[in-house]
Amino acid sequence: MAAPKASLHLVAPVWNGGTRGIGGLSRVVAPEGNQKKGRSLLQFLADCFYDVEALRDHLLRKQVSKVHQKNRFQGREWIRPNQRGHFSLDFLKLQAVPVEAVDASGCAINYQGLDSLLALKELQSLWLQRCPHVDDWCLSRLHPLASSLQELSLAGCPRVSERGLACLHHLWNLRRLDISDLPAVSSPGLTRILVEEMLPSCEVLGADWAQGLKLGPEEQPRDTAGPTPA
Amino acid sequence: MLRRTLLLGLCRGPLGRGLGTHRGGSILDRDGKMSEIKKKIQSILPGGDWNPLYDTSYLPPESSDVVIVGGGVLGLSVAYWLKKLEKPRGAIRVLVVERDHTEYLAVADDPPLDIQFNPSGYLLLASEKGAAIMENNVKVQRQEGAKVCLMSPEQLRNKFPWINTEGVALASYGMEHEGWFDPWCLLQGLRRKVQSMGVLFCRGEVTRFVSSSNLMKTASGEEVNVKRIHEVHVKIDQSLEYQPVECAIVINAAGAWSGQVAELAGIGKGPPGTLQGTKLPVELRKRYVYLWHCPQGPGLETPFVIDPSGTYFRREGLGHNYLGGCSPTEEEEPDPGNLEVDHDFFQDRVWPPLAQRVPAFETLKVRSAWAGYYDYNTFDQNGVVGPHPLVINMYFATGFSGHGLQQAPAVGRAVAEMVLEGHFQTINLSSFLFSRFYSGEKVQEHNII
């Protein structure tokens, strides 16, 4: 009756990869690692039944696909370039409207380039995934956004290390932080725990604590070819 | 004529060493053999280092335009700026003489330099007495563009709940680009860079200066003995052999031992109260640093904390380890004759204020400790920069009493400008000249920890 726990592993990583701005919905990171109290009924059912899990997944993906890419202004939809890569001129009429979210994923934004972002006093979400030049020095510049920034993603930035993550302590309003897949961080699992302790009201998406742990000689990995018996 | 063409062809030789970049190398330069041959020819010609009788590669060259005594961060910084600012390129031969071989062994590798900078900021705590000075300091810092914030005890408790704010009236916290880094990485990086720029290194000890003096009259009619150093005798480690190096300029960047090097040049040998009798007031002072583990201690956000009592600590790594210490008072100064660590000092002088300030530190376990020397300026604990008024070709870059690392890049540039141009250009450091020891004008540095 109960789906084997092993299958949950298959779903979770795919789901994490597809997520961008996580809305108020999810509190699931890795189901087996979730220590939070007060899990909703839906989540409980999702843990037990594979079908419910898949349904929830699908609903979330639909939600996420609406909030996809580029900048978002207060109350308005994303503004994107047209086929030729030009922004429409309506954009200029919106100068007085504050910017709430910036998606600079994959951009070659660097230390000096952050100047433009730091002036945005109402910025709530900032995505800097896979930015090749964002490093520890850049992170120490983010403190002016402390009063408004609620969501920050640094996933996949090759130059960010745990030393820069220590500066995120200034961002006391932060509710969602993605620090997964940071190759320059020496102990990803331990770093994530320390960041969670540093930012108690923030949900931190990152490496599992067991990642990077070395197994002792007695604890050889078991063969997980087939599903484990329920 | 042959020699001239050889020299013209060879002028790129010494500059191309180090990191092995052969941009625009000719087809004839297969396997770098041609540049090797060129180097060999140049060393054979007069002025080069080659001696036909025996191997002298461990000796310093017979002459060098600038000899830098001391290969620490200040000496390397001066070498870097001399090579960076010289015109034309390759015009000046710079030699760095360093005595200690264990500390500064060169490691030649190419990956980009990462000095492991932790931008966690400094948190200085002030009692009632020091609050006004702290406000003033923060004002100056902000004027220069530093992002520093002042915090009341309540704000401090909110931000860092692990602090006990008893006795703290005000705190200053650096928000941006302030923190600590690995000095060893910086030193190695500087050394590699400076070698690639063509600076020569030599392991040895400076034992003698050969100088000539002239009796001259100052503008006020007073007679002074003006000295000029012509040769530096570099003694090779564990041997009686020495090499006299002819030089035009000597830079004293010998850190804690600068006082001894200055004495070799005759600085301070004269009737007390005169300029000739004014010694370089830089002495060795031993300082301890302790590394401890405290599993309940403050977390990732911990800045470099400095207590009003002078005790300091910071986070080290991710494993709840911390390092810190405290400067002893004048009466407690340990004997600088050796580098043995006094563990009672931690128990009696460092731990109590730490435990009072951070209650979690009541249970901790010291993992290791080490000792090092400050180049302590007994006059005003501030650096000495620039030429000596009487020994006119000795320049100082020392005496920073524990602040040498942070000030090295700027001081290196200032001294290089002084050497190349004759005056300070970028930053005016004339208040830090040697002459203040004679005139008595102190530039007191209060914040040595």
Give a written overview of the molecule.
The complex is a heterodimer of chains A (230) and B (449). Chain A has helices spanning 6-18, 41-48, 50-66, 114-118, 136-139, 162-165, 188-198, and strands spanning 71-73, 78-79, 99-103, 125-127, 151-153, 176-178, 203-205. Chain A is α/β, with parallel strands linked by helices. A seven-stranded mixed beta sheet of chain A has the order 2-1-3-4-5-6-7, covered by helices on one side. In chain A, α4 links the parallel β3 (99-103) and β4 (125-127). In chain A, α1 runs parallel beside α3 (50-66). Chain A is globular. Chain B has 449 residues and is an alpha/beta fold. Chain B is built from ten helices and 16 strands. Chain B has helices at residues 2-10, 33-44, 73-85, 131-143, 153-159, 183-196, 258-264, 343-357, 404-421, 436-439; strands at 63-69, 94-98, 122-126, 148-151, 170-174, 200-203, 205-217, 223-235, 242-252, 282-293, 304-306, 312-316, 321-325, 365-377, 384-387, 394-398. In chain B, strands 1, 2, 6, 7, 8, 9, 15 and 16 form an eight-stranded mixed beta sheet that branches. In chain B, β1 (63-69), α3 (73-85) and β2 form a beta-alpha-beta unit. Mean pLDDT of chain B is 86; it is low at 5-25 and 103-108. Classes of the chains: A alpha/beta (230), B alpha/beta (449). The A-B interface holds A 136-137, 139-141, 143, 162-167, 169-170, 186-187, 190-191, 194-195, 197-198 and B 116-120, 147, 175-177, 179, 299-301, 315, 318.
Share in β-strands of chain A: 5-15%
Instruction: Provide the helix percentage of chain B.
Output: 10-25%
Shape of chain B: globular
Number of H/I helices of chain A? 7
Sketch the topology of chain B as an H/E string, one letter per element: HHEHEEHEHEHEEEEHEEEEHEEEHH
Indicate the radius of gyration of chain B in whole angstroms: 25 Å
Sketch the major β-sheet of chain A: 7 strands, mixed
Largest interface: A-B, 22 and 15 residues
How does the SSE layout of this entry go?
The complex is a heterodimer of chains A (230) and B (449).
Chain A: H1 6-18, H2 41-48, H3 50-66, E1 71-73, E2 78-79, E3 99-103, H4 114-118, E4 125-127, H5 136-139, E5 151-153, H6 162-165, E6 176-178, H7 188-198, E7 203-205
Parallel strand pairs in A: 3-4, 4-5, 5-6, 6-7
Antiparallel strand pairs in A: 1-2, 1-3
Helix pairs in contact in A: 1-3, 2-3
Chain B: H1 2-10, H2 33-44, E1 63-69, H3 73-85, E2 94-98, E3 122-126, H4 131-143, E4 148-151, H5 153-159, E5 170-174, H6 183-196, E6 200-203, E7 205-217, E8 223-235, E9 242-252, H7 258-264, E10 282-293, E11 304-306, E12 312-316, E13 321-325, H8 343-357, E14 365-377, E15 384-387, E16 394-398, H9 404-421, H10 436-439
Parallel strand pairs in B: 1-2, 1-9, 2-6, 3-11, 9-16
Antiparallel strand pairs in B: 3-5, 4-5, 7-8, 8-9, 10-13, 10-14, 11-12, 12-13, 15-16
Helix pairs in contact in B: 1-2, 3-6, 3-9
